[in-house]
Amino acid sequence: MRLTFIGKDPESNPTGSPTVYRTERDSWVVQGWVVNDPEALAQMDIPQGETCVEIPDRMLQFFRQGESGIDSR
Asked: What are the boundaries of the region Disordered (predicted)?
């Protein structure tokens, strides 16, 4: 899978920020904070091999930016 960097959380520090990537497979990869709140996890049905991460609303701008300029192969 080839990742194309789209954007990093503009309000984060340089070492621990959420980041958005676009793939050539018409999908997204999101680096974010691990969700380990038992109440939140109990509300989801996460299959083996999957996980969830949390990102702030301010990161949504990068999903819109990623739609243009990425060539799907």
From this structure: 1-20
